């Protein structure tokens, strides 16, 4: 399996050097570029097409949130992990809405960081455990005033099964096994789900499903596709 291609975006050179050391020492990762501001991060992402972008929130010239939004739009294959010191809800919500696949705090240890990068590289979505509960609480609060049926009629039964498993945190391999589908079919259904729901990441699709009440973290799903 080819190495994950990483873009490091942080305005502190020493922190970037630390990230480079950790990722290269872990193996299976290649640092393709480093950016010290948001505009440079967007430019380098377009030039190098990384698999993973490690993004700081507060960046010179262009914020990490806006840089994330532009990278996700310009490079659909890139997955952004926000790596920051900020625990405030507004930063978490803004980053997720911009398309980030992960939101982690900089006090994470090396082992957890490497595992998080690999999981996001496999298509999973991650939010720091200390923030996840508040994030879900906020989206559940919003669901009380949301139209629960909006967009639901556009999804097929098969797509809904995939979406429910995504909302429970399942990766593509697990979804394929549970629904007896090929990995390509799962990927194609996810693309259709994103298009129909007007979202651009796995995290946004999962949170929308939870917010609308189409799925829950506790529910099960039929093991065989109907």
Characteristics:
alpha/beta, Rossmann fold, Arc Repressor Mutant, subunit A, 10 helices, disordered C terminus
Task: Outline the structure in words.
- Helices cover 52% and strands 13% of the residues.
- It has 226 residues and is an alpha/beta fold.
- The protein has two domains: 4-137, Response regulator (Rossmann fold, 3-Layer(aba) Sandwich), CATH 3.40.50; 146-212, Winged helix-like DNA-binding domain superfamily/Winged helix DNA-binding domain (Arc Repressor Mutant, subunit A, Orthogonal Bundle).
- The chain has a six-stranded parallel β-sheet, sandwiched between helices.
- Helix 3 links the parallel strand 3 (52-55) and strand 4.
- It is globular.
- The protein starts with a strand and ends in a 14-residue tail after the last helix.
- The model is unreliable at 144-149 and 220-226 (pLDDT under 50).
The main β sheet shows up as:
6 strands, parallel
Order of helices and strands: EHEHEHEHEHEHHHHH
Taking Cα atoms only, what radius of gyration do you get, to the nearest Å?
Answer: 17 Å
Number of domains: 2
Fraction of residues in H or I helices = 40-55%
What is the β-strand count? 6
Return residue spans where pLDDT drops below 50 for at least 5 consecutive residues. Answer: 144-149, 220-226
The share of residues in extended strands comes to 5-15%
Number of helices: 10
- The third-level CATH topology of the largest domain is Rossmann fold
Secondary-structure content class: alpha/beta
CATH class of the largest domain: Alpha Beta
State the end-to-end CA separation: 33 Å
CATH superfamily of the largest domain: Response regulator
Overall average residue pLDDT: 83
CATH architecture identity of the largest domain = 3-Layer(aba) Sandwich
